[in-house]
Amino acid sequence: MRCIAVSGSPREDWNTVMLLEKTLEGAASRGAETTLIQSMCRCRSHASDWTVVLKVISMAIARP
Q1: For the segment 45-60, what is each residue's pLDDT rounded down to a tens digit?
Q2: How far apart are CA 55 and CA 59, in angstroms?
Q3: Phi/psi of residue 52, each to 5°?
Q4: Cβ 5 vs Cβ 35: under 8 Å
Q5: Range of the domain at 39
Q6: How many structural domains compose the chain?
Q7: Nearest to 9, CA basis, from 54, 41, 33, 31
């Protein structure tokens, strides 16, 4: 099984990412292959380019 967590938070090491990491740790402990994807943009002036994020997710899913 593959588990992919996507964070759209502009804060790299704050609560959202910590919660996602803990969730992925739990999945990994049960044998899942895990990936954490963080948003491409850290600024608050505009939203991340979710098209890029979705492409990265597609690539991670397609990986053998």
Answers
A1: 555 566 666 777 777 7
A2: 6
A3: -65, -45
A4: yes
A5: 2-62
A6: 1
A7: 41
What is the dihedral sign for C-alpha 16, 61, 25, 37?
negative
Q: Residue 22 corresponds to which tokens in the numbers above?
A: 């803990």
Q: The tokens of 14 are what?
A: 């704050």
Token output for 48? 């991340």
Instruction: Please tell me the distance from the alpha carbon of residue 61 to that of residue 46, in angstroms, as a whole number.
Output: 27
Task: Give the pLDDT of residue 23.
Answer: 93
Q: What type of residue sits at position 62?
A: A
- Residue 22 phi, psi (nearest 5): -65, -40
Tens of pLDDT, residue by residue, the chain (64 residues): 888 888 877 777 788 889 999 999 999 999 998 988 887 555 555 555 666 667 777 777 776 6
